[in-house]
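tool=predict chain=A
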Amino acid sequence: MADLTPTPDRPGLHVSKPSPSAPPTATAVCHCGASASARGDAQVRALVDGYTANHGPAHAKQGR
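tool=predict ok
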């Protein structure tokens, strides 16, 4: 399986929950240079919401 972890060369958002009993984890890297990681339901949800609102797809909307 390919490594899906975002990098500065391959920005994006990756969320993982390997088993029902394991806490979710997330990593995000934006092409603007911002990066973050999170562990646990609340932190992962906040990272996804923040990335979606302020990075990644949000940058495309700002350029219009």
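The radius of gyration is 12 Å. The chain has two helices and three strands.
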